[in-house]
Amino acid sequence: MPDPFATSVWSRPPRSGGGSPALSRDQIVKAALELLDTEGIDGLSMRRLGAKLGSGATSVYWHVANKDELLDLAIDAVMGEVPLPAADADWRTAAAAMVRGMRDVLVRHAWIASLFGVRLNVGPNSLSLGEATITLLERAGFPPDEAAYAAALLSSHAIGAAVTTAAWHTAVARSGLSEAELGRSVSEFQQQQRDSYPHLAPAPVDIPAFQRDAFEYGLDRLLDGLAARLA
Description:
- This protein is mainly alpha-helical.
- The chain has two domains: 70 residues, Arc Repressor Mutant, subunit A (Orthogonal Bundle); 150 residues, Tetracycline Repressor, domain 2 (Orthogonal Bundle).
- α4 packs parallel to α6.
């Protein structure tokens, strides 16, 4: 596997001049996001992107050198949808809003989860989100190193919850059932296993509601712990 930073679009200056005058990098990223959201990562190729833009792959290659660069741009565009926490707001309220917003964005773009840890999130939107979150926590009273750890902890909760929710959406789509029908099927199966696993809580029929409640429970406990640490 190549060095992800060496192949990142952020490791070199943007290209300028030449190319197709009717095609911009923003147009390319927008079209790439549409393909990624509907077809997933495997459905994205420079050829298909060029066809979608009606310009051919050659024009796309002028703006981005390869699919890896395109993915880096798409990741940062997604991170730009996460609302930045207001530095002058109550830290707990602002941090909670950031985590909820991040989870919602990652669920909306489910393909991105498989790229965390593979592609480096070092674009300007990703860095701005990290900067704003750490600034918020430092102003709340956390020392710089703990503010960075706390920001990573909050992001990890959003990512973990988004992965679980996206997996459920995929399972529903592949089953051909409605969410309620699949939820009942899972609950019935788990009820049949109670003799072997008596301490395992039965699966709820409304799994999306359970996932939202579990996410909120975890977020509240994380914030409780950070508040106690701050005190």
